[in-house]
Amino acid sequence: MRGTGPATFAYLVVRHELRLWASLWLWAARRTHDAAAGGSAFGYARGQGAMMAGFAFVCVVESVMMSVLLRDWPAVHHVVLVLDVYTVVMVVGLHAASVVRPHVLDPAAGTLRIRRGIHVDVRIPLERIASVRRELRTTHEPADGELALAVGSQTSVTVELAEPVAHVSFFGRRREVRVVRCHADDPGALVRAVERALAGDAVP
């Protein structure tokens, strides 16, 4: 993507907000985003549910406190109330984005799609996967060529690649990664499904 000038930054922010609203709609409709009909979806949002609920609760409490403190300044109170309500909606939207955008394994297309909400979407060709394993990690030091997508401060699946794939950040920075660490609600099921796909077996 182009440099992060004001116009590009504004575009990214608007796109981010629209994707959050779309995620809320999909969540309410009990639908998922781009989950292939012939593929298998693997969720990862359970690990952050309690944390996001707690964050939303804190935002609600803060909104009530600000309403009390600003009751003598109606104009300011209304502005702050709108911002507080929008913040709560966005927190819920971030969780919804993780729920409706699961990891997707599509053997027919030959891809494993690793996602984290609306911020990360990496498509890994199955032929580039050298190994996949369950591996619980709670600390993730930045490392060249590695992408760690922690949920609730942990990853539970490690995918090592024979050839790198591209990861594009929110601001359009592109880098090649050879190791992808992610979380799954059922890491064993994801690992077994990928192994079956690599072996050429059907994935239920």
Structural account:
The protein is α+β, with helices and mostly antiparallel strands and 204 residues long. Helices cover 43% and strands 27% of the residues. It is built from 4 helices and 8 strands, in the order H-E-H-H-E-E-E-E-E-E-E-H. The chain has helices at 6-28, 46-69, 74-100, 187-199; strands spanning 40-42, 103-106, 111-116, 120-125, 129-137, 146-149, 155-168, 174-182. It has a 4-stranded antiparallel β-sheet, with helices on one face. A hairpin with a 3-residue loop joins strand 3 and strand 4. Helix 1 packs across helix 3 (74-100) and helix 2 runs antiparallel to helix 3. The longest helix has 27 residues, at 74-100. The protein starts with 5 loop residues before the first helix and ends in a 5-residue tail after the last helix. The mean pLDDT is 88.
